Amino acid sequence: MELTVFGRWWVASTTSHLGSAVGGVALPLTALTVLDASAFEMGLITAAGYLAYLLISLPAGVVVQRVPLRGMQVALDLIRALAIASVPLAWWFDALTVAQLVAVALVVSFANVLFDVANQTFLPEIVPAAQLQARNSLNSGTHAVTQLGGPSLGGLAVQLLGAVPTLFMNVVSYLISAVLLRTLPARQVQRSAERPPMVTMIREGWHFVLRHPIIGPAMWDATATNFVCGAMLALFPYYLVRELHASPLMVGLLLAADGLGTLIGAALTTRFTDWVGTARGLIIAAFVGVAGALIIPLGTGTAAYLAFAAGNLIFAGSTVVLSVTTRTYRMLASPPDLLSRVIATVKFVSWGAIPLGGLLAGVLAGSIGARTTLLIFGALTVLSPIIYLSTPIRRLRDLPLDAAPKPAEARV
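Now predict its structure.
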């Protein structure tokens, strides 16, 4: 049976996410086990993997609006495949360095920014508005499955094959994604008689987000959360390997708790927000995330493994509730001609916090240890519920779709 347009889009995304989850274990283990990277070097690699969100997210929204989505996404998949493939090739010739891993992470991050903005912009074009919440939950649930199975598969592959050869699984996933995306219909780019300067178009999206009473606070909440996530991404492998002395397989299994939490959160988001309301759901999920983040670095020995898995599961579950709810709201509340720029603005600010968190965590962990650093960043998650409680969202049951600023205001 032939897959629908959404089906092919979904399979392509799932395949690349699974490969990325495997690579997400193999790449840091390559740095740790092959190159003996320090905490600061791990922070650099993590920061490089998200630096592009600070550098090109804003123009990415305009680029996506102006160019054919399909061709760009296929090209970006091929670029990511080539970048990852360079690591095992350099290792084979005994020329692999931490600097190359940083460069590869940087190239992949630039491709990821453009690809993610294009992917989110494309979804409302192939899914009716009434189905967006369900489709976003499905995507988050699928991503959770890949995050659940990918790290475990990656840890097992590293145990059997080694960290560097395992990266070829990531390469293959990008190639499969490119082949599937090539079969999607090409979007007709609107050629307007007026072609506003890129700065003007970026400013319109920026003003819309900052002045929106729901999308704006949600962006700042995501920024606070992602700052902590940056520290976690940088330190989790280092903490597990260097301080808890976990094997590659155990690292994969423990990191998979993130996928299990995301899967549970994605499965329950719609029913949860229908029950308590989308606005109240954001506040509750934010408080739950604080508890999860503080549990992660507790305990020693087996208790530390259990605390890490439990805290990771809770934090991931709460984060996906926040993500699905606010992402769906953005898609519904943003004018279609502004959507890609709204997405890009949110990514610039919120995802731009990830490399900053990763760098700071790497610096701190080198002097006070990964466990203490994780506790400090865990305490910072209290900013998430504070942000929501300081806005009109605290008085609402559901997020209103009529809260957008008037178009004339957005162009000021």
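Confidence is low (pLDDT under 50) at residues 406-412.
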